[in-house]
Design a protein that fits this description.
The chain is of the alpha/beta class and 748 residues long. Helices cover 51% and strands 11% of the residues. Strand 12, helix 13 and strand 13 form a beta-alpha-beta unit.
Length: 748
């Protein structure tokens, strides 16, 4: 066994290697969220289960340790069409073709042989395989002779029958792993998994001892909206064309349930001068791949697709996702909307909903067996509940995935921007809970509503529900009202929904206590999509541009030319955030370019010279004083922090999270914010202040700062701290935050 000193030395060596590889290969200064802890878990040889939203950086969790570990990491990926893009991205990031390969049915025998020969030479760190390929006897036999570092199973939710994208071949992966090498650790990753799906994944892969990492499902930059679907197709198409034109030049995905709708809508968009292409399983493989590449290369703006499109797509700058038809499950909806705004930028998610679409889905499930029908119907009911609810969309989504969300108004969904009037209920909630008890806690929400309204159905006679005291006592309100009451009861944790029993409602201990001692609860009535509504305004995404727009346009044009010449997606070379950082730092050498966000040594050396030449010429012609020419070298990083802080505050992100994301203390972050405001940029941190400082304290401190005559920041704060020293109710943090608010509101 290693001594304590050896373990400490090894720990710091690993940390150093991780940081070096993170910057040199991937171009990042810091890990996001729990990436570092996940990678360490893999490096230590533990089975690891990761649930991380789209855009959270899942791929880095297996790509980086694969570069460090001895042997080859086997990455199971579900869609053959996307593997080439995944492999290309890794190769160009690492700067070596041999570093990554894929094995699937698209390869000829000669190509398969070449890949295997390369693998045996030992230079390959990542091998992407389809689940069907991994289960083949010949693949198992070959991999038994290959040193394997770990197995990474991407899109692990495909294992579960309760997931939105169940694939039977995924349930055979554990047997394949055992046949190849049962001692090799497994890393399972997914962007969306309810508690039930999580249990299925752990059970099937036999990962009971796995280290579990669950990131927040919240995507604060995404705007969610559900619109009533016009009954006339032509009116729906007009609305979609209008929206796309309002977002001209932006990348977007429109999802339809059928191939015919995909073809019709893609053709309609083309006729209206919009660069759009279809994508579905019925297209020829070559055409489908070409259409996908044109979208990635930004030769077209919009892809109209069935749900087959998008899984594993790394395009970071998709700006809108439209659901032409309501999806079959909330997991599917979350995954598909999650393809917007992966770079933290704008992401508009618009879904069209109609009761007729729901009825079509139910009919679609009639050819399944009873169990499968019940499961599918329950998933659709969750979507209906989400669509019709007038509560915060973000709250609905996060609660569905088992995550608490305590913010009253997210400010970035249709329901929060246009809230419905709320009513207080007490007797109504008590009656609803009593009805659940009276029906033996054996029925779903719709059945309970039917009992309260006295509406007869197949259960009425069988269970003699019309003889219950509660039968028909709720006719003072409509079905929408009672659905809202039951949904609020779920959020208040007075009842639970038994997923394994297809949505049966049961009282919690808190629910039993409520019946005995009821109290007022605020409820907003659900949307009535049978009634026409006026258009809603989308929340504007204020990603403040702090860069040089003229230079950005030139860099973007150069990037397009280079990407076209090299037949690569633009983001594989440089992402938008990298270009933005270049317009702030004005790097004139390869070394300076490597320090820009998301660049790194390898990319800078491979692609950077034309960009450096362009920037250098631009700086000379416009006589620009660069940050590093004026201040000490470390100040160049401040520009990157400035962009990050401005955009995070625009998205109403917690200051604590912003500080943590940049490795700063809260005091250091406040100092950065003060510098940004002093430079002339207006920031609004009211959302954070209102959440953390009592209104009375705000007024007292604002009055103090209005009367303060000291203009020196440090001296003014020192005086304020001394002024409130004897009053323990006022913390230094509160005093400084209100100073920032005062500067932001009155200093310009």
């Amino acid at each position: 066994m290693l001594s304590l000193n050896c373990k400490i030395t090894l720990f710091f060596w690993i940390m150093t290697v991780l940081q070096t590889q993170l910057k040199e290969i991937f171009g990042f200064d810091n890990f996001k969220g729990e990436q570092e802890a996940i990678i360490n878990s893999v490096l230590e040889g533990h089975d690891t289960f990761v649930i991380m939203p789209t855009g959270g950086g899942k791929s880095l969790c297996y790509q980086l340790p694969a570069m460090i570990c001895k042997g080859t990491a086997i990455v199971v990926s579900p869609l053959i069409a996307l593997m080439k893009n995944q492999v290309d991205a890794v190769r160009y990031t690492a700067g070596r073709d041999c570093v990554a390969h894929f094995l699937n049915s698209s390869l000829s025998k000669v190509q398969t042989r070449e890949v295997k020969d390369d693998l045996m030479k030992g230079g390959t760190k990542l091998l992407y395989v389809a689940p069907e390929t991994l289960s083949k006897e010949e693949t198992i036999e070959f991999l038994q002779h290959l040193p394997i570092s770990f197995f990474a199973i991407d899109e692990a939710h495909c294992i579960s029958e309760w997931g939105h994208d169940f694939r039977p071949e995924y349930r055979r992966l554990r047997a394949a792993v055992d046949a190849i090498n049962p001692k090799v650790p497994i890393l399972a990753l997914t962007a969306s998994a309810t508690p039930k799906v999580q249990q299925d994944i752990i059970k099937n892969l036999r990962m009971e001892e796995a280290h579990l990492f669950i990131s927040s499902f919240n995507r604060p930059n995404l705007y969610y909206e559900v619109r009533p679907k016009p009954t006339e197709t032509i009116e729906l198409h007009k609305e979609i064309v209008k929206f796309v034109r309002q977002n001209q030049g932006k990348s977007g995905i429109i999802y339809c349930l059928t191939r015919k709708k995909v073809e019709d809508l893609a053709e309609l968009l083309q006729l209206n001068g919009i660069k759009a292409l279809p994508y579905h399983a019925g297209l020829d493989n070559k055409v489908r791949a070409e259409n996908q590449d044109k979208f990635l290369m930004e030769e077209v703006d919009v892809i109209v697709a069935t749900i087959a499109f998008g899984m594993g797509i790394d395009k970071p700058d998709v700006r809108f996702v439209i659901h032409h038809d309501i999806p079959k499950s909330l997991e599917g909806y979350y995954q598909e909307t999650g393809r917007a705004g992966r770079d933290g930028g704008e992401g508009q998610c618009i879904a069209f909903y109609s009761e007729q679409d729901v009825e079509k889905l139910y009919k679609f499930f009639t050819d399944k067996n009873i169990t499968e029908q019940e499961m599918a119907n329950q998933l659709v009911q969750e979507v209906v509940s989400y669509a019709e609810s007038s509560m915060c969309r973000r709250l609905n989504l996060l609660r569905y995935f088992g995550e608490d969300y305590n913010q009253e108004n997210c400010g970035c969904c249709d329901n929060c921007l246009h809230p419905k009037p709320r009513v207080l209920v007490r007797e109504e909630m008590q009656y609803a809970l009593e009805t659940i008890l009276a029906t033996k806690q054996a029925f779903k929400a719709q059945d309970i509503v039917d009992v309260m309204l006295g509406k007869k159905n197949s259960n009425t006679k069988i269970y003699k529900q019309d003889e219950l005291e509660q039968w028909g006592q709720g006719t003072d309100h409509n079905a929408l009202f009672w659905k809202a009451v039951l949904r609020q009861a779920l959020f208040e944790k007075l009842i639970t929904k038994e997923i394994e029993m297809y949505g049966v409602l049961k009282l919690t201990p808190a629910g039993h206590r409520y019946i005995k001692k009821p109290y007022d609860i605020s409820v907003a009535c659900d949307h009535d999509f049978s009634q026409p509504t006026t258009d809603m305004e989308v929340a504007p995404f204020s990603a403040t541009s702090a860069g040089d727009e003229a230079l950005y346009a030139q860099l973007k044009s150069l990037l397009r030319d280079m990407a076209h010449h090299q037949k690569l997606p633009l983001y594989v070379i440089f992402e938008d955030r990298s270009l933005t950082d270049m317009t702030i730092q004005y790097p004139c050498t390869i070394e300076e370019l490597s320090r820009c966000v998301g660049v790194g040594i390898a990319k800078a050396q491979k692609y950077g010279q034309p960009f450096v030449d362009l920037i250098k010429k631009y700086v000379e012609e416009n006589e620009i004083e660069r940050p590093q020419d004026i201040v000490v070298h470390s100040a160049a990083r401040r520009s990157e922090n400035k962009i990050y802080i401005i955009q995070a505050i625009d998205r109403r992100k917690s200051l604590d999270d912003i500080a943590r994301g940049k490795g700063l203390s809260l005091d250091e972050l406040m100092a950065e914010i003060e510098r940004i405001i002093s430079s002339g940029t207006k920031l609004n941190i009211d959302y954070y202040i209102d959440e953390n400082i009592e209104r009375e304290h705000q007024e007292v401190l604002l009055d103090y700062w209005r009367e303060s005559e000291n203009v020196n920041m440090e001296d003014a704060l020192k005086e304020a701290y001394e002024e409130f020293e004897d009053d323990e109710d006022y913390t230094h943090e509160e005093i400084r935050l209100m100073r920032i608010k005062f500067l932001a509101d009155y200093g310009h």
